[in-house]
Design brief:
Blueprint lengths: L15 H23 L3 H18 L19 H20 L6 H21 L1 H5 L3 E6 L2 E7 H4 L12 H12 L3 E8 L13 H18 L8 E5 L12 H7 L1 E10 L6 E4 L15 E4 L19 H10 L1
Parallel strand pairs: 3-4
Antiparallel strand pairs: 1-2, 2-5, 3-5, 6-7
Helix pairs in contact: 2-3
């Protein structure tokens, strides 16, 4: 009986392709996930962030904000803008707390009590104007905000205060003069562009109205300039939506912000102006220029000892000449 020949086993040298194919598949899936996570819809994220914030505020976890943020479901605020606004408010609150070198925990409550008392006194004194929606008051982390609306204090497109509104303004100025607190005057407009013989943009109109209030407080009411600062924000800090006439009327205002801090060093005049154009030619809403009094630096002159040339150096100089 013949013995069957054993054929040598065939060695498969292409088994590495299986592992390589698995590795390539996993690598492809990994980069697909990275690409998908980098293409997040910012508007949807902003809408989600606002919804979560509102839900937590209703539960009492977060402190409710006193500023009315105009929400538009078709064009929600980007999440980066929401974070910037919240960070700015948080920084303002923290700066107010840490700026008192000898402050105690009771100083904040004392300042809040003073502002509450001031708000109640102003509400009683300005009751007719508040009833006519010419003046509004609200609390913010910076302090008490007194809004002088355009319908009661300014003509449309003008920076001069109406003569009929001077008595109400004088009552406000007299009450604020009795307190040693800093005041920040903020000019605001709606989103309708302006272009007349006096102003070419809402930036100029809002800034001129703010500086006009500062001028009246210094010239007529005798305020110290170190208590006052002025800022113009155009249409970029609304308190209501600009889609209705009522909302635009609320946004056209000059805010007198009674800051919780007492008067310290001299306060520079801050004017918000566009630093660089944003999308679609709109100016940047966060640019500010601080106009502070100029004080030249003191330069100390050091006396340098006179250097006497050595005899060797003098001889070399004589040869060169």
């Amino acid at each position: 009986m013949s013995r069957r020949k054993k054929h040598p086993k065939h060695v498969n040298h292409e088994r590495w392709l299986v592992s390589y194919a698995d590795f390539i598949t996993l690598l492809f899936a990994f980069f697909v996930v990275l690409y998908a996570s980098s293409q997040v819809d910012k508007r949807k994220v902003g809408k989600l962030a606002m919804a979560i914030q509102v839900a937590f505020q209703e539960m009492g976890v977060f402190q409710a904000s006193t500023t009315q943020v105009p929400m538009n479901t078709n064009d929600p605020m980007p999440f980066s803008t929401v974070q910037a606004v919240e960070n700015m408010k948080r920084a303002a609150s923290v700066g107010r707390l840490v700026s008192q070198p000898d402050g105690t925990l009771g100083s904040g409550s004392r300042e809040n009590g003073d502002l509450d008392q001031l708000q109640s006194e102003l509400a009683s004194t300005l009751a007719p104007e508040i009833k006519r929606n010419e003046i509004a008051m609200r609390r913010e982390p910076d302090g008490l905000v007194i809004s002088l609306r355009e319908v009661g204090f300014f003509e449309s497109g003008a920076a001069q205060m109406k003569s009929a509104s001077r008595p109400a303004f004088d009552r406000i100025a007299n009450m604020l003069r009795q307190r040693d607190c800093r005041l920040r005057i903020e000019g605001h407009t709606d989103n309708i562009p302006i272009h007349n013989a006096q102003f070419s943009s809402n930036w100029e109109l809002s800034t001129s109205r703010a500086t006009e209030i500062v001028r009246l407080m210094i010239m007529r009411d005798g305020y110290g300039p170190n208590r006052l600062s002025a800022a113009g924000y155009a249409e970029f800090h609304p308190v209501a939506v600009n889609t209705t006439a009522e909302g635009r009327g609320m946004n056209r205002r000059v805010d007198i912000v009674v800051l919780a801090q007492e008067v310290g060093a001299a306060i520079a005049t801050t004017v918000a102006i566009p630093k660089q154009p944003g999308p679609a030619g709109q100016p940047s809403p966060v640019a500010q220029v601080v106009l502070a009094p100029f004080s030249p630096p003191v330069t100390q002159l050091k006396q340098t000892p006179a250097v006497h040339p050595s005899p060797v150096g003098a001889q070399k100089a004589a040869r060169i000449q």
